[in-house]
Structures are given as structure tokens and as C-alpha cells.
Amino acid sequence: DTEVTQTPKHLVMGMTNKKSLKCEQHMGHRAMYWYKQKAKKPPELMFVYSYEKLSINESVPSRFSPECPNSSLLNLHLHALQPEDSALYLCASSPGIRTDTQYFGPGTRLTVL
Amino acid sequence: DAKTTQPTSMDCAEGRAANLPCNHSTISGNEYVYWYRQIHSQGPQYIIHGLKNNETNEMASLIITEDRKSSTLILPHATLRDTAVYYCIVRPDNTDKLIFGTGTRLQVFP
What we know:
The complex is a heterodimer.
Chain A: E1 4-7, E2 10-13, E3 18-25, E4 31-37, E5 44-50, E6 53-57, E7 64-70, E8 73-79, E9 87-94, E10 103-104, E11 108-112
Parallel strand pairs in A: 2-11
Antiparallel strand pairs in A: 1-3, 3-8, 4-5, 4-9, 5-6, 7-8, 9-10, 9-11
Chain B: E1 9-13, E2 18-23, E3 31-38, E4 45-50, E5 55-56, E6 61-64, E7 70-75, E8 84-92, E9 104-109
Parallel strand pairs in B: 1-9
Antiparallel strand pairs in B: 2-7, 3-4, 3-8, 5-6, 6-7, 8-9
């Protein structure tokens, strides 16, 4: 298995909903990442997990809560989002950290109403 | 902030070589040059990376100038499926971060 999978592909939620995004990889990678990409903009890093521990939080609002239950799985829990949080959420993984190449999933397209 | 400058857009005829330039005049000795591309509404796809030497793989070639202040990604025989936004990224060897710039939108036409 040489890919990063993300579910769901699309998600529509209201501002009072709680939802979660899921990311999975079975390549034995020990680092996983969440990025956010607004329309017509480049991806921006949100979180980095290294060996299942949060190593970077790019000052992301607390309404986004990451979780890494094991080395293959990364979740992003969403609560009380705003319409401006609508974006493509991308997950990536790499064998380790630092110079290791990151491999991206297809993303989850999130719309907040 | 991104440390690279790329043209906003480029066109290329199908079957011809696509040469995508990138300026990184402030690059440091321990910083790698990475190239990714993103086809519409998909996740970024890794293409190639290098430090000092030119690199080639099954997708592309990366030519880095001797002073390392610029590089060129070469797709030897562009196809319609190569239409995408191409990102050139300078990445220090002591960071987990990929900082994407605005990229070059490559349009391959028949």
C-alpha cells in the first residue's frame, strides 16, 4: 500500500455540528501532517505529528483538534466551525521528519454553512 | 513566507518539453529544492527534489544552477495530464515544514 487515504471526500456541516476527518496510511511512516488549502491558494501547514506526538501546531484555532491514535491514523476533529473554515483539508505522511519527502492524500472538501 | 519566485502561468504544447523555472536567490547551504504539482482539486503530488546536483527520475529532471540560486524542472514530453499547478519549495534540512509559494500554473495544449 503506497498511498494516503482520506475520508470523507466531501463534508458539509453546520456551525454547531461536530465532525471528524480521517486520514490513514499503511506505509510505516512515522510523521503525519494536516494542511488547509483555501480556494486558489497554496496549502498551509496546520499540524505535524511525529511518532504519534504533536510536534508542531501552527497557531491553529482550538475549534480544530487533531488526534493521532496510532502511527497509521490521523484524525482532525471539528467543532463550532465558521464559514471561512470552508477549504480543502489535506493529510500527508513521511517516513520520518525533517528532509523526508511528504506524500499527500486526495483531501477532504469541507463546506461550513 | 515562501522563499521562491515562479512565473504565474506557462503554456506548453503536448509532446514538447516543459521547462519550469524557479528563483531561490536566498537559499542556504542546507536547504533542499523540492517540486510538487497539484492537479485540480487533488492532493499535491511529489515530483522530485535535490540539494546541489541535477536529479532525474521517471517523472522529471531537476537542473540546479551551480550557485544554487535558481532551478528548472523539466518535463521531457508534456502530456495533457501534466496540466497542473507546479510548486517549487525550498526546505531547510532541520524543519518538518513545507512552505508552498503561489506556484506556476502549467497549461498543456493539444
